[in-house]
Amino acid sequence: MTVQRQYTLPHCNLVLEGMSANANDPLSPLSVLMNAECHLPGATDASLTGGREFLDSLVAAVSRYGQQLLSGVPYPTAGGAVIVEIKPGEGLYHHLIVHQQPLGEPVSDINAQPPLDVKLTTVQFYDLMEAVDQLLADSQTLPDLTAQFQAVSRRLVQPTEPVAKRAAPAVLGATALAAAALALFFVPPPTVEPTRPESDASTPAESSTLPPETAPGADAGATEGSSSELSAEGGDLDGLDNAPPITDAAAIALLSSDLTNRLQAAWADAPRPSGDLAYRMVVSEDGDILGYKYENDLALAEVDNTPLPQLTFVPLPGAAPVQERVAQFITTFTPAGEVVVEPIAPEASGSSSGASSGSAVASATTPASLPPLSNRVTDGDRIRDLNSTLYDSILADLEPLSANEALRFRVRLTETGEVVGYEPVSAAAGLLAAETPLPGLVAAANSTADQADFQVVFTERGVLEVNPWDGWPQ
Amino acid sequence: MPVDSPPAPQPPLVLDTLTNPGLPTDECPRRARIQLDLLLLAIEALDLGGSEAMLATARDLGLESLVKGRVHLWLLRGTNPMRRYSQRRPLDIEEAKALVTIICTLARRLTVLVRQLLVGYQQLADKQLTPDHHFRLADYLIRFRSHFRARMNPSRAGVIAYSSDEKLDQLAIELLQQLLLCSGVLGPQRLWNSLFDGEVS
């Protein structure tokens, strides 16, 4: 027996036709659906019809969309082909889309039908939903069709923000990290120079690591003390050759006597050496022994018998080197048990340091001004004579200079005492060379005779110093 | 047989149609608490005697054990974190069910009015007119705005999002739609399940 059920609402008319389970019982439920028909007056003139598949799809779509409207959480779309789907439209409208294409048949150009798109207001959608709900709640129609409510799982919820927006902070962070890494890549890592204790550095065993020209077996000229060689003894003395010298004579005298007393006291009960032990020492303004270097071979061999390793100031590891004013002394431990401390004039020590570094600079940067010496004057007496001759000739023309620092020149003389040329060693010397008498002294520019180099220093206090470039002859 | 303790209170039968959503705890999620309070707020804006009607409905449905009078209802609604006097207490699942039932019952009673307002709003929107042209709708929107601003904490981030009249009107219309949707025969179940969208595992 054919049974018809009708659910009527103002904007929706849902009509179901089917067979009841028991034809003889008028109260038996409609259990086999033959046709479902849905009219949406006001929204569309077309009637949506279909079988059980259409009805199931309609119920599912309406339920899903109703829940989405209530919660605001987008319902995950079911995969696969669906006959009915509902999508939100602009404003308060909703789109009911019905794919009329029969699912079982292949789509071709002949039977292809466009999907039916019905625009529903909220009230119209509510009526459709209410009709479906009444059908679901009706136990007399399709008892197997019941409401299936299920909240959307957390895993299925689409994030409300697009992926690009959510990923933006992470991308920004990664970019900033990469940029920082790139920037720091060009920053050199800090170099950590391991500081060796002075007592180790001055033992004979350690001296084998010294450069060859300062080794004990080298000739006396090579080991002639210069503060740059002194600083080579220990890594912590690197700054000492550039340290400003103490120029106050009273302070030097005070330091000298203080040093003598301390060394004498510390050396009182040590075994006496077989000969003089001479050391060049660098002492800071407050009396700390910053470094020392042997001046003769015996001093190197017997350094452990002297109190120097114990008295030397060892800077804290890792502490930044302090640039302080220093004084240099020659300390001699005599076999008689006396300690003799002689100050080295700060100008002399400074000049020798400047000379050793300056000659390297001069030969490297301005080779054209003074070519390397080919024929040297080797006679010691001759060099001394030339030195005094040069000193006298410069002093004769010397006028007060406007320099506020020492001007350092390398001056080349022939064997006969003529000035071949000169070369400024420091930058200030290059600028103020015209104020000195040197330009007027150049006599023989091209001379093939034996030549000798001298260092000429005009100190800021107006003192003239002249000494041989390679040191005083032995 | 003498008994030395009163029988354990049974949850009202009217709530049986709402199944437990399978949450890890017995407390309602944050979005559910906000949603229930806002729907009640919309009902108050629709109906001047709305708050009285809520209490009367609770009595009629036999929910006194869960909604024990005016103050208790205020406490339940105060679990909305957007409220000015927000309560720290959790909202039990059973209490939420009672609120859902009350909302749906009142929504069904107000169906005609809700439909009128939504149809009117739709027509005004189609003509590009503001809701002020519909007297009843404008009345509802004004009342909803004043209720909302009087009771919600303006420094909460969720409330700052509704700082302008337009956004509050938008919210009021959305709540009107939701009231309509939960006024049907299966409205309570639909509303109940929608409260836990995205919360269950």
From TrEMBL, chain A:
Compositionally biased intervals (Polar residues): 200-211
Alphabetized InterPro entries for the sequence: DUF4335 (IPR025569)
Region (Disordered): 192-243, 347-379
Biased composition (Low complexity): 220-234, 348-374
Protein name as catalogued: DUF4335 domain-containing protein
Taxonomic lineage of the native organism: Bacteria, Bacillati, Cyanobacteriota, Cyanophyceae, Oculatellales
TrEMBL record, chain B:
InterPro entries hit by this protein: DUF3038
Bias (Pro residues) ranges: 1-12
Region (Disordered): 1-24
Pfam families in the record: DUF3038 (PF11237)
Name assigned to this protein: DUF3038 domain-containing protein
Originating species: Shackletoniella antarctica
